[in-house]
């Protein structure tokens, strides 16, 4: 009996030792199957485009296919929840945004995911400023004149939004300018832009790369870059701080995240692959071909700090705007 018990204990100990070895083998063989990047916004969105550009290059580097899945809805929460609940093995990633990872926690009472706990930062991909635009024929003057006219008439400015960034910016604009603002939410920017072009909505806050070509060809009118300085892509378009001194919003961004608990070795391998991809001239050209998009890599630790800082800043702005969590 003692011999049997001793042998059983030895087998159990061997099994315990073998588990880390198996895990280490899986990590060293990573990736052994296709990797999925979840874009929480529709096809044609910036998140979708960036996912496909970096995914294709990372796939070549890692020797596996990288597939993009679109799971839009609830300001990006649908896709975020999906990734947060995925197995933390490096095969399901999130193309996160400042909306998903820094703003949503202050907008929703029951978010069903916790950005600071549920994700492991891999690396920032790009920064993207936002722009306030108007449908053709709506605004005859600049932003200051448009706001003055709305105040004089006591009119409500209907602003379409397709991201959490835009939703908060619209509320802050109304408060800072002293005008009534009605937020008209859409499940992604392409849907709202279609209605803006069709005249169903008057104003919209868009990521600059989405709006750029429509501004340039006169289909919509750019009123202001939502930042404290002008954008190089549209140097003649004033920043919003020129009409409303002191008003700006943090620059938007997209970044890759893995589910929390993903082995550090896999996170670092993905971060190195992403960094290498963003150094390639063809990748930079594809990303920056969307005017206003700026390649901006941050390693995991730096991205963690950026998310924490932006989360605090957006929380303060949301409170100041009087936005109640839904």
CATH architecture descriptor name of the largest domain: 3-Layer(aba) Sandwich
Straight-line distance between termini = 64 Å
Report the CATH topology name of the largest domain.
D-Maltodextrin-Binding Protein, domain 2
Proportion of helical residues: 40-55%
Short précis:
The chain has 326 residues and is of the alpha/beta class. It is 49% helix and 20% strand. It has helices at residues 2-28, 46-62, 77-84, 98-107, 115-118, 143-153, 164-177, 189-197, 208-216, 240-243, 264-279, 281-288, 300-321; strands spanning 35-39, 66-70, 92-97, 119-128, 130-135, 156-161, 180-185, 203-207, 220-225, 252-259, 294-295.
Describe the fold and architecture.
- The protein has 326 residues and is of the alpha/beta class.
- It has two domains: 35-128 and 251-321, D-Maltodextrin-Binding Protein, domain 2 (3-Layer(aba) Sandwich), CATH 3.40.190; 130-242, D-Maltodextrin-Binding Protein, domain 2 (3-Layer(aba) Sandwich), CATH 3.40.190.10.
- It is built from 13 helices and eleven strands.
- It has helices at 2-28, 46-62, 77-84, 98-107, 115-118, 143-153, 164-177, 189-197, 208-216, 240-243, 264-279, 281-288, 300-321; strands at 35-39, 66-70, 92-97, 119-128, 130-135, 156-161, 180-185, 203-207, 220-225, 252-259, 294-295.
- The chain has a six-stranded mixed beta sheet, with helices on both faces. It has a five-stranded mixed beta sheet with strand order 7-6-8-5-9, sandwiched between helices.
- Strand 6, helix 7 and strand 7 (180-185) form a beta-alpha-beta unit.
- Helix 2 (46-62) crosses helix 11, helix 4 packs parallel to helix 13 (300-321) and helix 7 (164-177) crosses helix 13 (300-321).
- The longest helix has 27 residues, at 2-28.
- It is globular.
């Amino acid at each position: 009996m003692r011999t049997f018990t001793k042998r059983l204990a030895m087998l159990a100990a061997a099994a315990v030792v073998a588990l880390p070895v198996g895990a280490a083998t899986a990590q060293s063989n990573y990736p052994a199957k296709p990797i999925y990047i979840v874009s929480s916004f529709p096809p044609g969105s910036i998140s979708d485009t960036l996912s496909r550009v970096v995914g294709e290059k990372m796939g070549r580097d890692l020797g596996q296919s990288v597939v993009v899945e679109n799971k839009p809805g609830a300001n990006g929460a649908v896709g975020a929840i999906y990734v947060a609940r995925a197995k933390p093995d490096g095969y399901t990633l999130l193309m996160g945004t400042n909306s998903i990872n820094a703003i949503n926690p202050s907008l929703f009472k029951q978010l069903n995911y916790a950005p600071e706990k549920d994700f492991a930062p891999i690396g920032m991909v790009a920064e993207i400023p936002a722009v306030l635009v108007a449908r053709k024929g709506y605004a005859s003057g600049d932003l200051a004149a448009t706001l003055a006219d709305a105040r004089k008439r006591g009119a409500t400015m209907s602003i379409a939004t397709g991201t959490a960034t835009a939703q908060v910016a619209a509320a802050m604009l109304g408060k800072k300018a002293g005008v009534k603002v009605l937020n008209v939410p859409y499940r992604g920017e392409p849907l709202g832009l279609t209605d803006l072009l069709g005249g169903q909505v008057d104003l919209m806050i868009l990521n600059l790369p989405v709006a750029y070509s429509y501004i340039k060809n006169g289909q919509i009118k750019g009123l202001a870059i939502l930042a404290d300085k002008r954008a190089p892509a549209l140097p003649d378009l004033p920043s919003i701080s020129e009409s409303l001194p002191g008003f700006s919003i943090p620059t938007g961004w997209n970044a890759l995240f893995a589910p929390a608990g993903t082995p550090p070795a896999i996170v670092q391998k993905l971060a190195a692959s992403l960094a290498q991809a963003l150094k390639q001239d063809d990748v930079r050209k594809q990303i920056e071909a969307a005017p206003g998009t700026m390649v901006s890599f941050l390693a995991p630790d730096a991205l963690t700090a950026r998310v924490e800082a932006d989360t605090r800043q957006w929380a303060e702005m949301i409170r100041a705007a009087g936005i109640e969590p839904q």
